[in-house]
Write a structure and sequence with these properties.
With 385 residues, the protein is an alpha/beta fold. It has nine helices and ten strands. The strands form two sheets. It has an eight-stranded mixed beta sheet, with helices on both faces. Helix 1 packs parallel to helix 8 and helix 1 packs across helix 9. The protein starts with a helix and ends with a strand. Bound molecules: zinc ion (ZN).
């Protein structure tokens, strides 16, 4: 298969196309101007809007209503060609075969477990949600069948049939509001769709903004996309994929659990955005370059929190893409060694509520948005008319 050298070239070329300072010959830096169009209060309002649909569990009326609301928002931003991917979801029967033994010193994704670990799990008990209004909102059970997920596309002016895919998952679980998992990533993608869709923004290449469904059941929405569209690449129906960037749980980096298993109540001052690729992927080399391009964009344009690069991307919607294109994910923590070790006590719990988070938490998500927006703007050759 031909490898997407355009990704390598575009990443390597970023500093040249993204001057940090205003220059008398080229005018003000368009990337800095675009980043300035992101705003903490707008980002928070979009997360709040998503929490109006409770946990948005797949296969429920509240999930379908959330897809409709997201679609209406994307249209209001002027994002073109709003469309839906349809697929069928039937849950798999539980695996009753012999249990595979696993090396417990290794985390999911291949990293090593270190330090203090706390319990993780998915809350399935409605009575653990003390808010009666939210308990009722989250009450309808899921049913198998047809599913839909919504996307829109910024069309490139010179290379419309080449695109980056930018995703977050809009479904949640746990009898809360799925504010962080993954209202925070969904809102980030929606805010980027808003900025790039502004009529005065021009890009050379295309960007697809997509809000996956069925992530929590095993990445079924992103797998369906790969299955239905991979072979169409390069036709008028599907631009060629240049990279896939996923956003999942963007707000909470309070550090490692303490010895008693509890977490510090405040965002740690050294919180960071974790950019992960998967070292075992077929496109690991390209994904790593893409990840470092994002790290450089963070250094230059993010207002507060830095970024770190890791090699153990796992359990996320970029995984179905990783053997076909450069695929990375952005998170509040590493998924395997940190979230998997209990660094986020609200993960899949009734406490994943909008009200749980402070502005220092929301600001970590905003810094991730600044990072992806800046990196993407360089990659697609964004300018302001
Ligand atoms: Zn998630």
């Amino acid at each position: 298969m031909r490898r997407p050298f355009v990704v390598l070239l575009a990443v390597l070329a970023m500093p040249a196309v993204a001057p940090a300072q205003a220059d008398s010959t080229t005018g003000p830096d368009p990337i800095a101007q675009l980043v300035a169009r992101l705003d903490l209060e707008r980002y928070k309002a979009t997360i709040k809007g998503l929490t109006n649909f409770g946990d948005r569990r797949q296969g429920t009326d509240r999930n379908r209503a959330a897809v409709d609301w997201i679609e209406a928002q994307l249209k209001s931003y002027g994002c073109s060609n709003v469309a839906r991917l349809k697929y069928e979801y039937q849950p798999q029967p539980p695996n009753l075969g012999p249990r595979q033994t696993r090396d417990t010193s290794l985390a999911s994704g291949g990293g090593r477990n270190r330090g203090i670990r706390a319990r993780t799990g998915v809350n399935t008990d409605s009575t653990k949600q003390p808010d009666a209004r939210l308990r009722a909102l989250d009450a309808q059970a899921t049913t198998p069948g047809e599913r839909e997920e919504v996307y829109c596309t910024k069309i490139g002016a010179t290379h419309p049939l080449e695109m980056y895919i930018v995703g977050g998952h809009m479904d949640g679980i746990g009898w809360g509001e799925a504010a962080n998992d993954d209202g925070s990533g969904t809102a980030l993608v929606m805010e980027l769709a808003r900025v790039f869709s502004s009529t005065d923004v021009r890009t050379d290449r295309s960007i697809r903004f997509i809000l996956w469904n069925n992530e929590e059941t095993g990445l079924n929405g992103s797998r369906a996309y790969v299955e239905q569209r991979r072979a169409l690449q390069g036709t008028k129906d599907e631009p060629k994929w240049l990279g896939m960037i996923q956003h999942d749980m963007m707000l909470f980096d309070h550090g490692m659990p303490r010895a008693d298993g509890t977490l510090p109540p405040e965002q740690r001052p050294e919180a960071d955005v974790n950019i992960e690729f998967q070292a075992s992927a077929k496109f690991a080399a390209e994904a790593q370059l893409l990840a470092w391009g994002f790290e450089r964009a963070n250094e230059k344009y993010a207002t507060q929190y830095p970024a770190s690069v890791g090699s153990h991307m796992t359990n996320t919607d970029s995984a179905p893409f990783q053997d076909y294109v450069a695929a990375i994910s952005l998170r509040e923590n590493e998924r395997g060694t940190q979230i998997g070790a209990g660094w986020d006590p609200n993960w899949h719990q009734p406490t994943d509520l909008y009200a749980t988070y402070s502005d220092n938490d929301f600001r970590l998500g905003l810094n991730a948005a600044q990072t992806t927006l800046a990196a993407l703007a360089g990659l697609v050759g964004a300018t302001i008319k």
